[in-house]
Write a structure and sequence with these properties.
This protein is an alpha+beta fold. The strands form eleven sheets. The protein has an eight-stranded antiparallel beta sheet, covered by helices on one side. A four-stranded antiparallel beta sheet has the order 1-2-3-4, with no helix packed on it. Helix 12 runs parallel beside helix 14.
Length: 594
């Protein structure tokens, strides 16, 4: 079965998995999202011998799959040629238990006969040592233990254990429950226990979704994007990963295969900003705790662009040869070299979300004057780095420039600190930060502006374009109708747009010329179209982007211009943020429905 990205995630903010259209687990890492994969088939070529969990129906004729409404609980129905049918419900438990959130490192499945006398085969083959081999197993009367690399998993089930171990085909005559979790006893009857956990998990997610503030239009798309962004949260620390996968290439045989299972300060900033538009303050507040820990650890010095979900600074990059790669395309990388980079935009992306704590009365922990003075250390760093070379937000490995986007983010850090200081009654500090913002603005306007073209360049002293210049309006640096911004937008549309999609840039980088469009940049372009008065055109391209989503309602990082195939890691938080932002911006008002 050739791998593709038409996958549906399940999760509970501690662990997650990707399930294919046939109901087969093909990717999951445990005990953390950045750990060794216990299901590795997605990264192991076209015919992996292990690293998956399949429930196969004899004489399969048709498959239907969809989420239970407003939840990440996945329902798959398999129908045989003779009409026999099976329902599979997949989820990761999450609900309130003993006044705490219960989110175990566990996956649950319920398999039910719907019609006729279905015959099924269960193939549960976890992997270990980065997919090198099938995990060793032992068994008891009602459980099987799998010795994976970073965790021992125990399957508890009311299905005969030998059926699972021997992969025996059998008639399904009643509901069967499977709980694959920590190596500890399951303290209740498994069928009733998993069924109860399913009901409570469904109730949790429906209640969470009910609290979201939604636009009038495209609500299904926004809800699915918001739920999936929440699944990308590692709730124990507040970290938000960029994607659930590693090493899905940006385009075929490109070598642009990266590990995105870490917390980028930049990606997380955009994520909490989008979710904040929907009122999802729980994720924002938890992430602010993660940021405050990073700020404390930096002591006013260098901040990396990316950290492990447990705040680890060292996420060194290596290549593993134990799996064949997505569709056989190598390399497969673990870790990310970007942790070594200088990317000065991070200082703005730390300040901007933390500043909200000084204004937002909803938060359980409002920002204090002491928090402000600690945050000023990040602002000091932003001011000192605003005109220094870095790798930029596109993380060039051999190109160093003073990137305009990085300088703009440093400007935004100083600008927002000035606003926060004034709100806190610290007028002298407000004047200092306002002056620093003015100085950075003047430097950007002097060094990145091309007067003969009337537009900005992507770097100081350069002429190249990149899509991040569209963020000048979003950050408040320029009004959308400022002639300089209009000219910059026109140049980006002329040079970076291909069909309905936008490239990040078109100049060669460390790996040659890019060949796929970057989905988040297309959403930036849609926003810019609207702000330039071309709303109908923006809505048309937005609808086109929505049509490119997987059956699960999600997008990866990149898209092929020729056929619209998705490439890059999945599900990509940037792309889901774009869905939310554009829906909120372009939707008709609720007044139209009242």
């Amino acid at each position: 079965m050739r791998p593709n990205l038409d996958l549906a995630p399940i999760g509970n903010c501690a662990v997650s998995a990707l399930i294919d259209r046939s109901g087969r687990f093909v990717w999951a890492c445990a005990p953390r999202v950045d750990g060794d994969p216990v299901f590795s088939a997605l990264m192991d070529g076209d015919a992996p011998s292990h690293g998956f969990w399949a429930i196969e129906l004899e004489d399969l004729a048709a498959v239907e799959q969809a989420y239970v409404r407003n939840t990440p609980v996945l329902r798959t129905v398999l129908t045989a040629e003779n009409g026999a049918a099976v329902e599979i419900l997949d989820f990761a438990p999450r609900h309130i238990k003993h006044s705490r959130t219960y989110r175990p490192i566990a996956f649950a499945r319920i398999v039910r006969p719907l019609n006729g006398a279905p015959r099924i085969t269960i193939r549960l083959r976890p992997s270990t040592d980065w997919g090198a081999r099938r995990a060793p197993q032992t068994s008891g009367s009602n459980h099987i233990r799998y010795m994976c690399a970073d965790i021992v998993l125990r399957l508890t089930t009311n299905c005969p254990v030998s059926h699972v171990m021997d992969e025996r085909t059998f008639r399904l005559e009643g509901d069967m429950a499977f709980f694959l979790g920590p190596d500890e006893g399951y303290d209740q009857e498994v069928r009733a226990g998993v069924a109860s956990t399913l009901d409570r998990t469904v109730a949790y997610w429906k209640e969470w979704t009910r609290t979201l503030y939604l636009p009038l239009e495209w609500q299904e798309a926004v809800i699915r994007a918001a739920i999936t962004l929440k699944l990308c949260v590692y709730e124990e620390t507040g970290a938000i990963v960029a994607a659930m996968t590693t090493s899905v290439p940006e385009f075929p045989e490109s070598g642009r295969n990266w590990d995105y299972r870490y917390c980028w300060v930049r990606d997380a900033y955009y994520t909490v900003r989008a979710l904040n538009r929907l009122g999802a303050v729980d994720i924002l507040e938890n992430y602010l705790g993660y940021l405050r820990n990073l700020v404390d650890a930096s002591k006013g010095g260098h901040v990396q662009p990316v950290y492990g979900v447990g705040l680890e600074a060292d996420i060194g990059e290596r290549i593993v040869d134990s799996v064949a790669g997505y569709r056989g395309m190598k390399p497969v990388r673990v870790g990310n070299q970007a942790h070594e980079h200088l990317q000065h935009d991070v200082y703005g992306q730390i300040v901007l979300p933390l500043v909200q704590a000084f204004f937002d009365e909803r938060l359980l922990r409002p920002g204090s004057v002491e928090d402000f003075h600690t945050l000023e250390q990040v602002g000091d760093r932003a001011f000192s780095m605003h005109d220094q070379t870095d790798a930029g937000l596109w993380e060039f490995r051999t190109i160093a420039r003073v990137h305009t986007y990085s300088s703009m983010m440093c400007w935004a850090a100083c600008n927002r600190l000035g606003k926060a200081a004034r709100h806190l009654g610290l007028e002298e500090r407000a004047e200092l930060w306002d002056e620093r913002a003015r100085l950075i603005r003047a430097r950007i306007e002097a060094e990145a502006y091309l007067p003969h073209e009337g537009r900005f360049a992507a770097s100081f002293g350069g002429t190249e374009l990149d899509a991040s210049l569209l963020q000048m309006t979003d950050l408040g640096f320029l009004d959308a109708r400022d002639p300089r911004q209009v000219k910059t937008f026109e140049a980006i549309e002329r040079d970076l747009k291909r069909g309905g999609y936008l490239f990040r840039y078109i100049h060669p980088d460390d790996f040659g010329e890019p060949e796929t469009a970057f989905n988040f940049c297309t959403f930036w372009f849609i926003e810019a179209l609207h702000l330039n008065g071309r709303t109908e055109e923006a809505r048309t391209i937005f609808e086109e982007m929505l049509s490119r989503r997987t059956h699960a309602g999600l997008l990866s990082e990149d898209i092929a211009i020729q056929d619209g195939e998705l490439w890059g890691n999945y599900p990509q938080t940037y792309s889901l943020v774009g869905i939310i932002n554009c829906a909120v911006l372009l939707s008709r008002s609720w007044q139209d429905a009242r």
